[in-house]
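Encode chain A's predicted structure.
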Amino acid sequence: MPARLTSVPAGTEIFIDANVFVYHFTGVSSQCSEFLERCERSELIGITGVHIILEVLHRLMLVEAVAAGKVIPGNLVKKLRAKPDVVCSLSSYQQQTEAVLDMGVEVLPLEHSLVKKSWRFRKQHGLLVNDSVTGAMAEGLGSLATADQNFVRVPDLTIYSPRDI
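Encoded structure for chain A:
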């Protein structure tokens, strides 16, 4: 069972998964918001990867399109591909994601060696590609903030999860 996101010890270096940012920006989890505020105050050392930023951009774009009434839920990617004018009209997802940098969260690049290392996470723990890259990046820190329960299969990671979603 993952530890509570609210119990991350001060000073911890922790990798942050996309869902923590998405739950914060969409107002779904006050625990995710409080956690990111702790990163912003430098109480925690928040680290993420460029692949996470791309995932956050993608998910928040979809959320914005639905919230603005531009598309209805179901096959959102297909619907947005067919409506480039709608994609052009969206902007808050970009502003929200850029705010991650203002939170004091370090964004790590995606190195080729890390892609190679992620193979082990797919083979040993059955993680999908993006999650395996996250696991490989988080492994060096030992701590991961995520709502994704698939990471409990990785024994060398301490998982911290929000309990209010």
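The domain at 3-159 is CATH 3.40.50.1010 (Rossmann fold).
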